[in-house]
Amino acid sequence: MGSCADIHDAEPCGEHVIQVADERTIIATARGSLRLDNGTVLHDVVVVPGITRTLISVAALFKDGMHVSFSGHKCEVFGRLLFHGVVRGGIYELQGGTSRSAAASALVAQAPKYSKNDLRHWHQRLTHLNYNSILELENSGKVKGLKIVGPRILNDKCEACALSKVTARSSPKKATRPQLSKDEVCHTDLAGPMQRSIHGNHYFLALKWIGFTHISFLRNKSDAAAAFEDYLAIVNRRSDNQPHLIKVLRSDNGEEFEGTAFQSVCAAAGIEREYSEPHAHYQNGVVERANRTISETARTL
Fold it and tell me: In terms of pLDDT, which residue wins out, 240 or 258?
């Protein structure tokens, strides 16, 4: 709305910033209710001084349980049917006026023209510089022609900045859950393919448990299940009184660890499986670091 003339129970709302379809911002100064000719009452209507058209938010209609249908050259708003609209001049114009005057401005989805010197547009011009720095530049007078029109505070976020400036979360310094006993979790990872060894191997499987690292050389990734089964046999022979001490096996989501053969070995031994998240190497960092040490040592020989 452009004035409070048709608004019922109008109340000041401070400087309420609204972003319209073309990303410009407009300032509302009051809000209230608007009664239409057909008896429908629109709530939470805001007043923007100088606006020449009355805009209806489709999202707000959805929030109130309404449905909006656009087809061909017409649109309809209904829960029960509220409005009919037709296309005029490339926009959908809803048939109806306010209860004060049937000749009031029609309800259309068209935004007024506003200055492109608001804070948001300066933010875009200055390669998405943060808002506070733009305000500091304006106050310093170091940038000729930098004059911000409109509010100095924007509560919404810039979508382009959110998508383009996102960074990976830093690795936690400590475990985020109670640490398991050192004899409960075995960490494993497979490295390769590498240059074929004299025995025809292209991979190695590292298993880190209670501070010791065991290495098995493999011709193929599919050999990982048999290598782990052999490792369990070694562990059991060395722990006659407490067989199957390994309760949890942690690995990444490699196909060699998710295959039926590997799962069967773990199930037969009563070992629970844990998987690290994709690209979160720190979640299995114990064996990742062991793999790095082994690979670096081999390259130096």
Answer: 258
